[in-house]
Amino acid sequence: MEKRNIVKCHASGIRAVKDAMDVLSGNWKLPILTSLYEGTKRFKQISREVEGISDKMLSKELKELEMNQLVKRTVLDTFPPKVEYELTEHAATLEKLLDAMRDWGLLHRQKIVGK
Amino acid sequence: MEKRNIVKCHASGIRAVKDAMDVLSGNWKLPILTSLYEGTKRFKQISREVEGISDKMLSKELKELEMNQLVKRTVLDTFPPKVEYELTEHAATLEKLLDAMRDWGLLHRQKIVGK
């Protein structure tokens, strides 16, 4: 396979790749997105499903996901007010990227670790 | 678009995605891979091309890329001995992943920043 056309990144390509990595960076965003993949959830539900995350961290990560328009936060007109979180349409565009990352991660682990 | 099948990650999926992110993490691996995409290079050549990287950092990043079998280091039998770096065949498998990351990064920047 011609190695030359492997990483056809250029300056703007590198910035775009870094953008993608920054949005998904850290230990918590993927498990949170996975939890919300099953549907709209309350804060405590997500907190229970994402093992080991503190409420402070979950709140920060949800804000970042909201800022990146991957998660939508809805305050319901109840008393006391209830807050719900769900994935946005923009989050749907992550699928191809996450599939490619998962596939390469599995291939790489096989190459390096042999299983 | 059905949001439910957006992020079909499960535990092993999340680990594989994290593996991919860990291998490419940081500010330097992508520019180093891009530099080596043009062919075999000496340490100083890479150092000149990857703006702002210290020799200590370049040495560390090259070791990590070598450990992940993405870069091959060759010591030439000359006096003094010369050292060369090149991408491996395994690095060729990065192409689809980096394309997907670049495409999503561009799409995301367009969505968030509008350009």
Please tell me about this protein's structure:
Chains A, B: It comes from Flagellimonas aurea. Chains A, B: Keywords: DNA-binding, Transcription, Transcription regulation. Chains A, B: This is Helix-turn-helix transcriptional regulator. The structure is a homodimer of 115-residue chains. Chain A is of the alpha+beta class and 115 residues long. Chain A has a single domain, classed as Orthogonal Bundle (Arc Repressor Mutant, subunit A). In chain A, 58% of the residues lie in helices and 12% in strands. Chain A has six helices and three strands. The first copy, chain A, has helices spanning 11-24, 29-37, 43-49, 55-67, 89-92, 94-113; strands at 41-42, 71-76, 82-87. A three-stranded antiparallel sheet of chain A has the order 1-3-2. In chain A, a hairpin with a 5-residue loop joins β2 (71-76) and β3 (82-87). The longest helix of chain A is centred in the last third of the chain and has 20 residues, at 94-113. Mean pLDDT of chain A is 88; it is low at 1-9. At the A-B interface, α1, α2, α5 and α6 of A face α1, α2, α5 and α6 of B.
